[in-house]
């Protein structure tokens, strides 16, 4: 039987991921600290803690993948006309904004995908918090189970 204390702890585990807006890596530190201190009190808290941590690690992994794919597109566009062999400083460095490259469209599309994914992440965290408040188990979609 779940009491309100367990529901509140599970809710705060999910909501503690928002601490990243105040503390660097707070989205990992907050849930890990709350989960580690309270995981033995209830299976409900243990499951929600693992879900929150697994989701944050998965989001970090997906962000690294999207960033690794999109950043080179911008670099190739900016430095495409730079002659690396005959480099004489920055007086020959030109950025032509007039003609967009397909690489810029691909990189911009991946950047837009990252923004949409961030908004979806925030909505999923709120949904998980509300499920924990109601005493229900919530499983984040597309989450890799690092902690089982």
UniProtKB/TrEMBL annotation:
UniProt membrane topology term: Multi-pass membrane protein
Main localization category: membrane
Keywords assigned: Membrane, Transmembrane, Transmembrane helix
Residues passing through the membrane, by range: 12-38, 59-79, 103-126
Cellular compartment(s): Membrane
Pfam families: MamF_MmsF
Name of protein: DUF4870 domain-containing protein
Organism of origin: Winogradskyella aquimaris
């Amino acid at each position: 039987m779940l009491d309100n204390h367990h529901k509140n702890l599970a809710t705060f585990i999910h909501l503690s991921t928002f601490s990243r807006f105040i503390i660097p890596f707070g989205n990992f530190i907050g849930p890990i600290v709350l989960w580690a201190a309270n995981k033995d009190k209830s299976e409900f808290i243990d499951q929600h803690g693992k879900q929150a941590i697994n989701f944050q690690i998965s989001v970090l992994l997906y962000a690294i993948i999207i960033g690794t794919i999109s950043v080179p597109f911008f670099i190739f566009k900016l430095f495409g006309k730079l002659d690396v062999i005959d480099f004489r400083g920055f007086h020959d460095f030109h950025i032509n904004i007039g003609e967009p490259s397909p690489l810029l469209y691909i990189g911009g599309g991946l950047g837009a995908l990252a923004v949409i994914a961030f908004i979806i992440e925030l909505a999923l965290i709120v949904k998980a918090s509300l499920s924990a408040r109601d005493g229900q188990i919530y499983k984040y979609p597309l989450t890799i189970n690092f902690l089982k």
